[in-house]
Write the structure tokens for this entry.
Amino acid sequence: SYDLSQPLSVSVALGQTAKITCGGNNIGGRSVHWYQQRPGQAPILVIYKDVNRPSGIPERFSGSNSGNTATLTISRAQAADEADYYCQVWDSNNYVFGPGTEVAVL
Amino acid sequence: QVQLVQSGGGVVQPGRSLRLSCAASGFGLDGFVVHWVRQAPGKGLEWMSGFSYDGRKKYYAESVRGRFTISRGTSDDRVYLDMSRLTYEDTALYFCAIEVPLNGYYDQWGLGTLVTVSS
């Protein structure tokens, strides 16, 4: 099975940039997707296929993927960005999620 | 945008069965690639089951294969998750989600339905 790793938590000052990493063996060769989940809510897709933003997602959210690390970047962080973030890949008819990263905006 | 409406959660004893339902508000789910994802209390997301892009195959996580069954209603355009031989570890919030066909990600999610396995 394919394993993904994420930092447990990331803190960012209001208006600054947060980077959330997702590690996996040669993850750069896979498509990585990112979801935001606010407390008590369903997940929302924020980045798909490494770098694409769905309609309605602010430009402050961006993604990259290379080597063994994919990264979700949140620029000009706002209080509303406080949430858990999960990376996800497809692997042999399994849909694998990372353990999630809690983002705190200070 | 599709609005997914979920139902069927509740409290169930260990070893018993439960059926979850997922419907689309205003129209049917026929033609949509529906999956189930769960989240145990305080834990992360865990994929459970889903249809292939053409609806011909069903896939299951190893942890539930043989106990959970995904299906489509024959007359009601819903998607079901039949769960049997439930254990305490199955306690979770269960989401249905729609996969973008052949792309491996979910662009629509239901609000979730809570399953609590308790004696």
Q: What stands out?
A: Residues 99 and 106 of chain B are 4 Å apart (CA to CA).
